[in-house]
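Sample A.
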Amino acid sequence: MQICSVCSEQTPKYRCPACKIRYCSLGCYKRHKDSCLPVGQPEPTGPKVKDSFNTETWTVEDLLQEEEDIVDKVPLQRLQLLGQSKELRDLLCNPHLRQLLRSIDSADSKADAMKAAMQEPLFVEFSDQCLKLVDN
C-alpha cells in the first residue's frame, strides 16, 4: 500500500504532473508545489522569462487525453453518467448553484473559490452527488 509522499500519513489519490510523486490532498499539493522538481525537463539555458497567465481554455478532449498513468482518472463512461443524472439536473435548476459554479469558473484563484464554495451546503450537496455518480 502506498502512502502520501508529502505527509506520509494517508493513501495518495493524486500524482504531481511535473515530478510524478504521489500525494493525498490539496494541502499536501500546496506544500509540495513550492519544492517540486520536474523530471525530464532540461534546465533553461537562456534568460529566465516569467510565464504569463495562460488564457487558453481546455476542452474535454484535452482533459481526457491526459497521461495514461493517472490512477484516479475517471473513465469517460462514468463522466457521461453526470450528464444523465436527474438528481444533478434538479440541483442545477437552482440559480444560486449555477452562480457559484460560474464564480468558481471565472475566479483567478480557483482553489480559493472552491474553498469558499465548499462552505455552501448546496455546493457540498452538488459535489457529493457528482462523486457518488463517478465513484460507484
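Sample B, a different protein:
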Amino acid sequence: MEAGKMMNEKRILVAVDESEESMHALSWCLTNLFPQSNKTILFLLYVKPPPPVYSSIDAAGFLFSGDVVEVIEKYGKDLATSVMNRAETVCNNFNSNIKVEKKVGSGDAKEVICAAVKKLQVDMLVIGSHDYGFLKRTILGSVSDYCSKHVKCPTVVVKLPKNGKNLEHES
C-alpha cells in the first residue's frame, strides 16, 4: 500500500479555475465518477498565476508603492477564494457526503497540476478544455495536453457541449 493512501480509496483531482469549462469538468466528474464509489476523495486544485517580479521602479521610472503590491496580492487571494467557493457549491449541489479537499497552488498551471497529481498520488486527473483553435493553442499552449502527456495516471479532458449547456446549471 502506498504511503498516505488507504486501501480501495480512489483519489481524483479536478483542476478548477474561473472558467465555465472547469466548472463543467467538475460537474461532469461528479455526475459520472462519483456514483461508482463512496470511498473517493475529491481534490479541487486552483492554481494562481505566479506572482509578478516586482521592482520598486516601473518601466516608466515611477515608484511603485507597497499599496499597489498589496492590492495585486489581495486580488489573487480573493480570486482563489471565489473559485473555490464556486467549486464547493457545485459539489454540494451533487452530494453533501463527498469528501472534498481544497488545494491552492501558485505558478505555471501545467507544472503545478502535474506536481500535485504526483504529490497527492491521485488515481485520475479531470481537467476542462478551453477548446482553443490551433493558432491560440500553439501560442498559449494547452494545459490539458501537457498534463495528459506528463502525469502517470489516466486523464479525462472534459469539453463543454457544443450546445453550451453546462451540467452545473442543471437540476
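Observation for Sample B: The chain has five helices and five strands.
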